């Protein structure tokens, strides 16, 4: 068994550490790239959303490196994500690939027994004892939290750094060094080391950078290739960004949702505008926009793929929030045809608007 998995931001680091610790053979697909997207777009149904296409590209690039088993998380809908694994299995079968799929659905949807059966089918490739397996799983959770924290710190501090680009290069260096490690323990050391380094980056508290919340469809905001590396671009402009939806948030949300203890602040903030879950993370998007306006952000950018049903609903709600809270929100819709030049122009125009608003407030001009 040689397992692979689709990319989703920094999750590849935690999954790599997990498989290293368990001694399971795996293939990390090349970081999502143009070629993966072209492969995915070639074989996927034309009208399916962008994440599906990039994931197909990830799989096929891994299969070419010997992967024979695919690990993905699942959902029972109600958006297209609920159909992803079934469609992807059929599509890869039609292409002549004989693969095993391990789909990690929520335990509430498939039952605890089935959930553990699927977990044990992954762990069966490991010769570690149960205690060791649990210890490694704990490391995986620790790693996903650590890398999310490093990223969060870098993306927020970059607006205050004295030497432009220091946080970004530390973040990239951290990912590279973490990927070069051979065990979860080693990766944890690297991540802690970089968290410390970021804490020592010289900053000026007198700076007043623009602060932008990144909201929208979970895959598109987490996987940088799919949003044309928007957070890196904003770092280059010296803009501080924050994003609530991260892989560690997802894990926490999945654990707490059966007890209805998940994302309480988001649910409360969204109550006036969207009091129900309608699929995807539309409710989170609406709640985050409200919270960002309260937390003193200068604006928010919503990103989602063409045809994303839940985010089309939240997009129609966001203008009400923008009007009620006097809070600018830019929406960017992406697909395989998105041109970078037009995309950058829209971002720059939005930053310009935010800058002027901020100066008007600060200097009353
Ligand atoms: S949330 Fe949107 S982009 Fe993601 S799977 Fe559902 S419809 Fe597609």
Automatic annotation (TrEMBL):
<protein>
    <submittedName>
        <fullName>Acyl-CoA dehydratase activase-related protein</fullName>
    </submittedName>
</protein>
<feature type="domain" description="DUF2229">
    <location>
        <begin position="13"/>
        <end position="71"/>
    </location>
</feature>
<dbReference type="InterPro" id="IPR018709">
    <property type="entry name" value="CoA_activase_DUF2229"/>
</dbReference>
<dbReference type="InterPro" id="IPR051805">
    <property type="entry name" value="Dehydratase_Activator_Redct"/>
</dbReference>
<dbReference type="Pfam" id="PF09989">
    <property type="entry name" value="DUF2229"/>
</dbReference>
């Amino acid at each position: 068994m040689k397992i692979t998995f689709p990319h989703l931001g920094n999750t590849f680091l935690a999954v790599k550490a997990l498989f290293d610790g368990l001694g399971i053979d795996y293939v990390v697909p090349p970081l999502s790239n143009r070629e993966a997207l072209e492969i995915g777009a070639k074989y996927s149904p034309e009208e399916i959303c962008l994440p599906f296409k990039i994931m197909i590209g990830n799989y096929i690039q891994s299969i070419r490196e010997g992967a024979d088993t695919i690990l993905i998380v699942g959902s029972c809908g109600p958006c297209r994500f609920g159909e992803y694994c079934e469609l992807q299995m059929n599509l890869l079968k039609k292409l002549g690939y004989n693969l095993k799929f391990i789909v990690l659905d929520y335990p509430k949807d498939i039952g605890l027994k089935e959930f553990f059966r699927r977990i044990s089918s992954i762990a069966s490739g490991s010769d570690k004892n149960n205690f060791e397996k649990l210890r490694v799983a704990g490391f995986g959770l620790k790693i996903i939290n650590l890398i999310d924290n490093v990223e969060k710190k870098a993306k927020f501090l970059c607006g205050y750094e004295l030497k432009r680009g220091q946080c970004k290069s530390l973040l990239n260096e951290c990912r590279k060094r973490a990927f070069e490690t051979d065990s979860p323990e080693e990766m944890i050391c690297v991540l802690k080391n970089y968290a410390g380094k970021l804490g020592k980056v010289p900053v000026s508290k007198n700076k007043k950078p623009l602060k932008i919340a990144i909201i929208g469809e979970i895959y598109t905001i987490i996987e940088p290739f799919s949003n044309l590396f928007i957070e890196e671009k904003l770092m280059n402009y010296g803009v501080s960004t924050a994003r609530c939806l991260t892989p560690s948030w997802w894990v926490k949300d999945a654990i707490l949702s059966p007890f209805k203890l998940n994302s309480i602040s988001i649910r409360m903030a969204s109550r006036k505008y969207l009091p129900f879950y309608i699929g995807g993370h539309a409710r989170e998007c609406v709640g985050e926009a409200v919270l960002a306006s309260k937390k003193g952000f200068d604006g928010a950018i919503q990103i989602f793929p063409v045809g994303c049903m839940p985010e089309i609903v939240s997009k129609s709600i966001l203008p009400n929030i923008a009007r009620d809270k006097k809070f600018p929100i830019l929406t960017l819709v992406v697909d395989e045809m998105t041109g970078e030049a037009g995309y950058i122009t829209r971002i720059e125009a939005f930053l310009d608007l935010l800058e002027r608003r901020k100066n008007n407030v600060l200097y009353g001009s």
